[in-house]
Write the structure tokens for this entry.
Amino acid sequence: MSYSTNEMMTVAASRRLGNGSVCFVGIGLPSKAANLARLTHAPDVVLIYESGPIGAKPSALPLSIGDGELAETADSVVPTSEIFRYWLQGGRIDVGFLGAAQVDRYGNINTTVIGDYHQPKVRLPGAGGAPEIAGSAKQVLIILKQSHRTFVDRLAFITSVGFGEGGDHRQQLGLPGNGPVGIITDLCIMEPEAGTHEFVVTSLHPGVTREQVIENTGWAIRFAAELGETAPPTATELEALRALEARTAAAHGQSGGDE
Amino acid sequence: MAELLSLHEAIDRFVGDGDCVALEGFTHLIPTAAAHEIIRQGKKDLTLVRMTPDLVYDLLIGAGCARKLVFSWGGNPGVGSLHRLRDAVEKQWPQPLEIEEHSHADLANAYVAGASGLPFAVLRAYLGSDLPKVNPMIRFIECPFTGETLAAVPSVRPDVTVIHAQKADRKGNVLIQGILGVQKEAALAARRCIVTVEEIVDELDAPMNACVLPTWALTAVCRVPGGAHPSYAHGYYERDNRFYQQWDPIARDRDTFNAWIDEFIRGSEDFSAFQAKLAAQQEANR
């Protein structure tokens, strides 16, 4: 089956979510990938949304972080304060699944502003739940489309911390979680290098060249010595993803969540 | 005891110029009708607090009601930017807007602290983030027992909170179901609380452990069916996703926005007149 680069990205991200893991889900691409995981290899994954649903099992992708179907299909619906206090800060989240406007080589995330904070070139939505998810989830996965504007040498603003300035900086800061373990894009998969914690390409998606990745990265991106090739989406994965998107379009009149 | 009032009277009596106001509802039960009434009555210099400003604060900011915004995520969910918020921040239109920016966990904790009668909230947050550099209200303290560095933020204690809920009984006890967000905490953190409801019933029939706000903890209850549109009221109506999309071109341009609020909000006597006008327009465009 032929597939798009966006489909490759979503499928590659969904594969990183283990069955039975407890996942704090961001809206948009993370929610799409997390629900694809639940509908394919990880039926027992527990999806938690910041609006309050624990164990949500939506048939269509939510357009907002608090859609009614998330509550109706959840094991429990708790107040938003409880989500952040008991379940996230309490240390019960295995994987935080985040999107981003921009990332840097250490997996730090900007979702606040481009340009000067007080005289911004572009005002982005802001932090939402991401800073504490990035801080307290045991692991973090980041999914976003790759370009030299989104993968930047220096962030204008660090909203959520990955490995800070690299090395053991995250540990020095005292953040309880282990930080980002993967950045999944439409071109490749990046993982933190042992020691430096700089993100390097560990797997290229089929048909993608090193040059393409270099062109679309704002820093001098490095490639792992043993560079892999991502397995293409299987028919099962593609059918599940397309059916999910079709149900979403039917339910909402829009596809929901590529941004 | 809460008074059962018209929304007009509740906003007139309990929201004052210069007040700190929280209209809460986390994508669900957003009190849009109350925002319209605040615009109709021309309230000004408000400090607006809300985790997700959403369309409801895009309206109030664009209409010139706000002096300051306290928030943690300012987008149009599933669509893109809040253009009135961005125009106010980037170009000071229609007037400068001071912003105080937090994260969700921070503001949720700050509401809990407000409802708890505490001066500040403590949480594990912000280490390494740039947010404390641009928001002096985010500070750090040392745990007196372990020495751990923790974030401290002032509690949110609004002059008035407005929330929307499914129903109230005739005494003014309110039942909220579905996604709760921070409605309960915001209601109890405020000096005064106005609740708009879909309907007023003889018996709440609330299940044990349901989220019920007792009448004696509230100031006013107003019946405003559909008052959370374009967000949704679980069990009553669904989110109007199309309106969230339609809002984008309306809010993108200053003149279009002004014309829209003049016609649809200032040009409507109340929320039901607004609903009739909007329905007629949607019908004509079909």
Notes: The longest helix of chain B spans residues 271-285. Chain B touches chain A through 53 residues (CB under 8 Å). Chain B has a mean pLDDT of 97. Chain B has two domains: 3-102+157-277, 120-154.
